């Protein structure tokens, strides 16, 4: 799958001016997203003191980098100072696209849940579900907020020292302190202090947005990559141990260490992004694999939007992760849902005016 450029010089773009390692990251991230959602339904349904629950926890913990990767790719693209993004373009193209996608898919999933099999058919419930959105559509609202903040964040990255300072602030306020609020007594006091402080500037996913640009314009090699690899392993371990510990203590699943903004997830996300960037600087995808990678990467938005439907459909036919040991069952369900979602996304992208909006 790997091929160095002919003159040995670093190259991250294909002949079509695509950034190839972004496409690779999109492929890996979207498969990881489908796998997380395939595993997490059973994970929530079984007690946290079972061996099967622990195995599902390992799978989920290892794949939490998926959504941050998408935010980082968007930041690398949208914050590039060489790409002029006018507010007019922002409000006439990007934001309407996200709003339309959210409205259509939220309504579709609400109709399925309320008027489909097992639904109560209540119009009020349908309206509430259509407004609040299906569980995975939060991603569109997060992207909407980041798009609104893009003009400000572009100013932040004009000075790399300011940009790194912005990321450094996000580490304690978004990645560490929220986890500590769960500590008895001291955590409650910390929550009160943070609530009074209301320092929301670096909360949410803006840190990943800026970090994506910074990492895209920096290449880590050798020892630095090895260090980040070790940190990634440690991050996954913290996610597993932390999730297991707080869930067992509560007697039910607790996802606080699964949060995408936590430091344990962030270090894994940085390691994956940096490794892909280093690979892309000196390699090209072979022609054979390039067609597959570009196809899946181009359909990733649609796959993200439609895959919960196919996971639901498979469950209706009795195809769940419980059909086999956790890893085998999760992989089997993921492959089926992914293939069906890829086909649906490709089909939607052939419909005039829907390409790039609904898929």
Automatic annotation (TrEMBL):
As for subcellular location, the record says:
Cell membrane
Tell me where in this chain the Acyltransferase domain is found: 20-343
Q: Which Pfam families match?
A: Acyl_transf_3 (PF01757)
Recorded GO molecular functions are: acyltransferase activity
Q: Which UniProt keywords apply?
A: Acyltransferase, Cell membrane, Membrane, Transferase, Transmembrane, Transmembrane helix
Give the membrane topology, semicolon-separated if more than one: Multi-pass membrane protein
Its transmembrane ranges are: 21-41, 61-79, 99-117, 137-157, 164-185, 197-215, 224-245, 257-280, 292-314, 326-348
Q: Which InterPro entries match?
A: Acyl_transf_3_dom
| Signal peptide interval | none
The similarity annotation says: Belongs to the acyltransferase 3 family.
Its protein name is Acyltransferase family protein
């Amino acid at each position: 799958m790997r091929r160095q450029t002919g003159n040995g010089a670093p190259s991250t773009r294909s002949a079509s001016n695509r950034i190839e390692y972004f496409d690779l990251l999109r492929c890996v991230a979207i498969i990881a997203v489908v796998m997380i959602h395939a595993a997490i339904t059973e994970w929530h349904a079984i007690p946290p003191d079972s061996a099967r629950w622990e195995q599902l926890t390992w799978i989920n913990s290892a794949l939490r980098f998926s959504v941050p990767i998408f935010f980082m790719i968007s930041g690398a693209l949208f914050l590039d100072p060489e790409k002029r993004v006018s507010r007019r373009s922002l409000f006439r193209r990007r934001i309407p696209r996200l709003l339309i996608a959210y409205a259509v898919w939220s309504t579709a999933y609400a109709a399925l849940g309320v008027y489909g099999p097992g639904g109560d058919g209540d119009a009020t419930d349908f309206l509430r579900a259509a407004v609040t959105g299906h569980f995975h559509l939060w991603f569109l609202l997060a992207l909407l907020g980041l798009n609104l903040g893009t003009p400000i964040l572009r100013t932040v990255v004009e000075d790399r020292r300011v940009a790194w300072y912005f990321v450094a602030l996000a580490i304690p306020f978004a990645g560490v302190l929220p986890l500590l609020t769960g500590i008895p007594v001291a955590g409650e006091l910390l929550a009160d202090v943070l609530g009074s402080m209301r320092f929301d500037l670096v909360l949410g996913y803006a840190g990943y947005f800026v970090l994506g640009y910074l990492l895209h314009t920096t290449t880590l090699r050798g020892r630095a990559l090895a260090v980040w690899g070790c940190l990634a392993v440690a991050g996954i371990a913290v996610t597993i141990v932390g999730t297991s510990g707080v869930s067992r203590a509560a007697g039910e699943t607790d996802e606080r260490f699964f949060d995408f903004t936590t430091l344990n997830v962030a270090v894994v996300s940085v390691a994956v992004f940096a490794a892909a960037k280093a690979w892309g600087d000196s390699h090209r995808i072979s022609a054979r694999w390039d067609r597959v990678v570009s196809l899946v990467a181009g359909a990733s938005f649609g796959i993200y939007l439609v895959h919960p439907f196919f996971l639901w459909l498979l469950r209706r036919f009795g195809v769940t992760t419980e059909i086999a040991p956790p890893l085998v069952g999760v992989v089997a369900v993921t492959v089926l849902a992914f293939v069906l979602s890829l086909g649906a996304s490709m089909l939607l992208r052939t419909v005039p005016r829907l390409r790039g909006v609904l898929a």
